[in-house]
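Quick review question:
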């Protein structure tokens, strides 16, 4: 019983620590501020890579305008079409009240669902919503697209600036030899293990990855169940 109590305590501590894992944030404090998200991984024989560059070009209390450049840097020699379909930002601070864009190719939405990452605060997509669409509507290998993205808030952009907080999810279509869609996370260019040409998290296919805290709690339940079975056998 004492061993069980110690194991339970350890699991609870692990769950608490997991809940405090810090997120990565791009901060835009003034006009001219820049930040980039890199999506890079290998799946189904294809080396996927795309970059989204943001430049804050207009700022008032309630409106922020970003110049956005999206580049699908995946080499054309890869198997599959590897079309870049959409990306999302998990949390935008302050909370957004609206979004619009000047692109004929890309559209944008708030509190949309990017499969595999669930609901994101801001999503930019090229086809039929954040969840994907026709492969031909995506940004193809070697392609680049630029436009303005206008965000509005009921709060104040000038009080503390604007934060884009991870995870940053991406969706691709017809990836490698699979012929299927794939989703994975990106990283902030210039941060450790991201730089200008690497990084990016795994995951995808619309699957959900359990949070570390949830894993710890599941382990706690298994420990308790095992202890109960041992006590029954002894009785």
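Suggested answer, residue by residue:
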């Amino acid at each position: 019983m004492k061993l069980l109590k110690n194991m339970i305590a350890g699991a609870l501590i692990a769950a608490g620590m997991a809940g405090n894992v810090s997120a990565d944030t791009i901060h835009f404090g003034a006009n001219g501020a820049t930040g980039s998200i890199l999506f890079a991984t290998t799946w189904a024989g294809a080396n996927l890579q795309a970059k989204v560059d943001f430049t804050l070009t207009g700022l008032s209390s309630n409106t922020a305008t970003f110049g956005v450049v999206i580049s699908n840097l995946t080499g054309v020699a890869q198997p599959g079409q590897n079309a870049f379909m959409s990306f999302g930002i998990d949390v935008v601070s302050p909370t957004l009240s609206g979004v619009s864009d000047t692109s004929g190719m890309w559209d944008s939405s708030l509190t949309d669902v990017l499969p595999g990452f669930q609901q994101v605060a801001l999503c930019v997509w090229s086809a039929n919503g954040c969840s994907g669409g026709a492969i031909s509507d995506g940004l193809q290998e070697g392609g680049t697209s630029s436009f303005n993205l206008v965000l509005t808030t009921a709060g104040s952009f000038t009080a503390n600036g604007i934060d884009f907080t991870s995870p940053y999810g991406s969706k691709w279509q017809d990836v490698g030899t699979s012929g299927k869609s794939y989703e994975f996370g990106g990283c902030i260019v210039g941060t450790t293990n991201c730089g200008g040409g690497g990084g990016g998290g795994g995951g995808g296919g619309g699957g959900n990855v359990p949070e570390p805290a949830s894993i710890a709690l599941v382990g706690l339940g298994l420990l308790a169940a095992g202890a109960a079975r041992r006590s029954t056998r002894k009785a």
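Why it works: The first strand starts at residue 25 and ends at 28. The two ends are 14 Å apart (CA to CA).
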